[in-house]
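Question thread 4412

I'm putting together a teaching handout and wanted feedback from people who do this every day. The idea is simple: show students a protein as raw sequence, then show them the structure tokens that encode its fold, then repeat with a second protein so they can compare. Below is the first pair exactly as I plan to print it.
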Amino acid sequence: MDTEAQPTERDRSSRPADSEEISDTPGPEERSRSALLSRLAAWVPGGRITLALLLCLLSLLTLNTFVVRPFQIPSGSMEPGLRVGDRVLVNKLAYRFGAGPQRGDVVVFDGSGYFGEADYVKRVVGVGGDHVVCCDQEGRIRVNGRSVDESGFLFPGDSPSTVPFDVVVPEGRLFVLGDHRAGSSDSRDHLGSPGGGMIPVDEVIGRADGIVWPFDHATRLHRPDAYARVPSAAADAALTAGGAHG
């Protein structure tokens, strides 16, 4: 009598020889890495816990050196946006790949030899080639012939400047001001000093991108729109030349 062949248990569990399977067995690289960590942990006092702490510390040092750096606001020169004691994260990579500081950026820089032996935080008002003047008929700062409305970030009650100035920013330098103009020592106060109060771009540590402490004041820092319509120095020069010949 014909009978239908029944699959054996082996038939049910058999798989093609070329099927891909995920193995839980660690490969040579994983075993080598694990062995290295075990040897390091045995060598370090405190074992794996100490090793883990050291690795965390190394990661933080690497971030602080090459990527971001915490910075504590030392004075009220950038109020109301940045208050005394606020901690901001400074993006150290912001200007490392071709792009330079832009008008309106809040930057942290080394002021040694220019402002004093310390790091400072200010807002960029003029970049290389810019013509910066104070003030127009309404008391506003003009950059490349365009008046800038700074009311969105200027300290309440402050004027854009009580010190008149008319400067052209050299290439590779920055003209910087504090948002609390009445309480800020900035480029205006060093116009007669070496460098004319202009900070070399090379001395910029990074761009302040956000407040991280205290938590109730934490926020991202954005470039204000006030400078968006300021023409480039080259465009302003062309317009001026055209007007002169017209």
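The second pair follows. I'd like the answer to focus on this one:
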Amino acid sequence: MEKITVRSLLDVIGELFSDEISIAVSNTKEYIYYRPSKRIDLKISPGDPVKEGTIAYKALETKQKVSEFINRDVFGVPYHGMAVPFLHDGKLEGCVTAIYPALTEGKSVVTVKTNDGWIPIPFSQVVYLEAKDKKTFVNTKEYSGTHKNSLQEFEYLLPKENFIRCHRSYIVNVHHIKMIYPDTHSTFLLSMNNGDQIPVSQSYSSYFRKLLGF
């Protein structure tokens, strides 16, 4: 039997976790492995130092499991996580961290800017969000306005049971999808019930199909 590399083993273990969860592994000082999910990506790279204030840092300091919410000051996005240190012969060697998207914090509307002012829009009425011209557009059947948040920030704020990232430029509300078509330029083309069409890119297609069950 050929020797199994640490990375290949971690990749296989990562497949056991939900697509919602990012996995990070560090030694006592720096990250040695990172697998981002489609829902949350802290942009960690192997070789990055374990930052003070992260749950990985706290787990290494205390040599105990740590589970808590971390605000956006550390990585630029809020997240929930659990970090578990591992030891060999009683000596601390590193830490494994599971990273979950932050919840919606009880909010149920997104307030968008229009030419006339601001409109609070219930999540249920949002058809899709689009990143275009360095702005984020929030689209409903009646309105289109802009918001200061990026699509990445919206991924952590919007309820995950309704909203799916389907493209680097789009997040869609699944309750407003009228039809899904195969497409030559992208994996799928979504016909939304406001009349617009949204592409599903190849990098998001398997995640999209898994969540919608087809």
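Top answer:
Good format. For the second protein you could add a caption like this: Helices lie at 6-15, 55-62, 72-75, 151-157, 202-212. The chain has two domains: 6-101, 109-212.
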